Each structure stands twice: as C-alpha cells, then as structure tokens.
Amino acid sequence: MRLLAFVMLLSPAPDAAAAPVPPAPVLPAGARIGYVVTDETGAVLAEQAADQRMVPASTTKLFTTAAALALLGDVTRPDDAAGATVAFEGADVVLAGHGDARLSSAPDCVTDCLATLADAVAAALPNRTVGAVIGDDSAMADERWPSGMSWDNMATISGTAVSALTLDDNLASAPGLRPQAVHDPALRAAIVLRAMLEARGVRVTGAASVRHRMSAGAPSAASEILARTIPAPLADDIALTLRQSQNLHAELLLRRLSPAGTVAAGRAARDAALAPAALPPGSVSLYDGSGMSSYDRVTPRALVTLLRWGNAQPWSALWRAGLPVAGQSGTLKNRLRGTPLEGKLAAKTGTLMGTQTLAGFLATAHGRTLTFAVLVNDLPEGASASRFVDALVLDWAARY
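User: That's the sequence. What structure does it adopt?
Assistant: Structure tokens below.
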C-alpha cells in the first residue's frame, strides 16, 4: 500500500497536460542527402547514397590540408621559406611574396609584419631615397580565383583573390566600412609598403607597381635579399584553415604543394599525396583547394576513406587538432551546444549555395569513436539542413 502511494506521488496526475514534444527535424523538400558512418574497424554502421558524387563545399579543405601535412615537411618549425622579402633592384624596392598567408600591416602586429621589412629598407638607405616600390607575386601563377567559383563570391571576404604576396588576408578596410576584397593583392601590398616607407622619412620617387606571371611562366629572377619575415609554423595556419574554414589560406596551401606554384600542379601533387588513401575510383573531382568551386564533387564514402586514412598517419594529431569542435570552437562553436555531443564531435563543416556538409569524428554514449560524412545538396534557397544533420549525428551517438 505504501509502495503504491509512493508510485502515485511520482506519477503525473491523470489530467495533467503532457509536455509538448518538438517535431523531429526534416530534410527540406527537394534536397538530396548522402551519408556514411563507420566504426573503429571501418565497418559501415549506416549509409545512404554513400557512393553518389555530391558538392562537398569546404570539406574539400580536408583533402588539401591532408596533402599539405603529407608533403610540406616539418610544419611545426617556423615557416621561413614562405616569408615575404624585400630587395633592391637599382633604385627600386621589390617586395616579393612566397605563399605566406599571414603577412600583416596591422599597427599591433608582432609576428610576420610588413613593418619589419619597411624598417629594414629604411635602415639600408643612407640617402633616404628610393625609386618605385614593386609588389612581386611571381612565385605563384596569377590565378586569383578558383575555377568554378561563383562571381558573386569574388567581392566578399569568402572569395578574396589569391596571390603569392598576400597582406591582411587580401582585405582592405576603412573606418566605418566593412572590409572589402582586394582585386590585386600584390599591388595593394606595394602601396602599403610605399606608405610605410614615407612614414619613416624615406622619399619615394616612383609609383607602386606589380610584377605577375602567367601560369606557364617562371618566377622573376631573385635579387639579393635584404630582409625576410619569419611566419609562425605552418601547422598553426593549417589549424586556422580548418577551424575557421579560411578559403584564401586553403588556396595558397594548394599552390604550395608544388614548386611550380600553379593550380594544376597543386592538384596533381595533392592527388599523388593522397593516392595511398586508396579513395574509390571516380569518387573525387576537386578543382580548387577550398571548396568554393561549384565543379567539385566527392562521395560520402570517399570522405570517410580519407578521414580514416589520415587518422592513421604520423601527422594525424595535428590534423585532428585543427578541426572545429561541437559547441566549443570554429565553425561548430554554436552547433550542438548543450547536447551529448558538445566537446565530443570534431568535424569539418561546409556551406555553399544549396549545400551543407559535415565530416569528421564523434564519440558515442557507448565509448566508441565513429567516422562519418554527411553531404546535403540541392537545398532550396534560404533553407538549412543543420538541424536535420545535427539530429542525425546525435542519433548515431546514442545508437552506437
């Protein structure tokens, strides 16, 4: 009798209104989804359209960063080979870029600063006079935007022009205005250096100009270097590229994969570096480094194959450390917060017109680590699949 009374106290009154159950997220009408999830052994736990070629958006950066880690040597050392340099050519000053993505003109810059080069030039001029200031980005071909990038992205911070001489992420800003993408990054860098020299009391008699090269050309002959910036280790930039989905930095990484400094050579080098991953034949067609190209195609199974292969490489800890973490960092900072996957899912996101993707690793309620990829294509304008995808990975975490 006492037990019955206790149970009745814990039970809701018969006429109590039941708490409303929110409807389960649904995929927007017309959208296509492909996914695959595997366990630690590679066994497939769930899949749908796993071999269908789909637009990957920024999960393309997983391929580019994996190839960079495989090809570019010890990325934990200072990235001095890519640092910007200054040299004299007669009376002119040549500012040359070598693929560094982080050169800065910010007043509070501490590392990898254009001001360091301006100081070196000013100190080397007994007569305090120079001719022109030339921005030289010929270390890489003049291929400023990926093939297949939408024209309306080119003027945004997501589609800044690519150049071996990059300054301030190739964005220009003014008080009260939003940052604007720079059309010719090497020219802007020369203009900024020219102003810095004048601020140091140097008389500049010539204009700022640029030196580019065509895809089939060769870099300009190197002059004797006066000074060079020393960027932070490339590992830091790879992590930033993944965590913040930095398109410009990904495109520069692609071009750095080959000494030729061209998109075609970078793509070939990436393919060769990832050949040991044994991606399914015909499953990957990538035209850029960032995923901004609408021509890119990848299957969910190829993404999972890449993730599992990369996770077994000597550089896997660096790669995984750069991934956004659910509810905590990067492009996943505001997703899955307060759920069982907060802090337990690390994955690369991807967003493009009509496309949302997610690929990475998650820890389940049963102590297992799963590898997964979800690609949603053909989303109607203005629609989002985030809630649906989040519900899917939460189900896997609870189920497996």
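Residues 185-199 form the longest helix (15 residues).
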